Amino acid sequence: MDSVGRRGFAAMDQKTGPRADEAERRLVARIAECALEHLRESPDDEPKPGDVFFLGGMNLKETADEFLERLAIIEDGRLQISGKEIFDHVLGHWDPESLPLADALRVFVQTDVSYGDVPGSRKSAPIPPRYELLFRDLIALGYARRTLRGFRWTDRMGRFMREEYLWDDRGLTTTEMWDRDAKVAWKTMSPTFKRHFFRMGPVDVLSLSKIVGHAWRMGDYRDEQDCGEWKQMPEGFDYSQFTAVGPGQLHIAMAMANRHWPHRVAMLYRQVLRSFKSE
Q1: Are 26 and 136 found together in one domain?
Q2: Where are the alpha helices (DSSP H) in the chain?
Q3: Within-domain flag for 169
Q4: Are residues 63 and 138 part of one domain?
């Protein structure tokens, strides 16, 4: 716990009077600082007025650029103030009518959570050091809470996470859903598949992920009993014709392989990387 202490955070969490407005202004200002970081080409180059940033068609950079334009920090494609002036600029000029706090939080999730270092899981996680000040205000406004490890997201952040498909309707993250699928897929996998993929020796993770992609129906998790199932595939089907594999299928295949051969995890990752490079 930092110097603010538990009582300090509890007091700041009351969204009444100037205290809440203060925290909201600081939060938008910190998000703006993070947005500028996503536009910088080099961490060694201090942004200065007149700088033009190359977006390269990247969603991350375009989202950050558009957000800074709405704050009048970037106009006509050029930075209007230095990076060091952003915080004070937003404190003095942010208009919640033209740029609601919710929009700033969406940008934060779209950039720093989806692409950056901020964990999106509902589980307790460490706060990345450079986000410590930003999280003070997220916690003060009730979007996160302090834990012994660092922080945990609250339900107030749920709608922004769901909008970016980072959580489902029940608050499960994508990785948590895949982990759950992997457990059920392992339990219900046919003996034929198990003998083929989990015999002694290296597990062919890439081929297994293709089987998962075409033969496994993921559950929708609204019903505790609906946890996915294996499709009935024709006897003697040529699985080598499958080519597409997504991160979900790869994650499930890796998790199943890890359950069977936990000491081979490093070797499996190297195998998958080599497979991708060769295709």
Answers
A1: yes
A2: 5-12, 17-39, 59-70, 86-93, 101-108, 132-140, 158-163, 174-188, 191-197, 205-215, 247-260, 265-278
A3: no
A4: yes
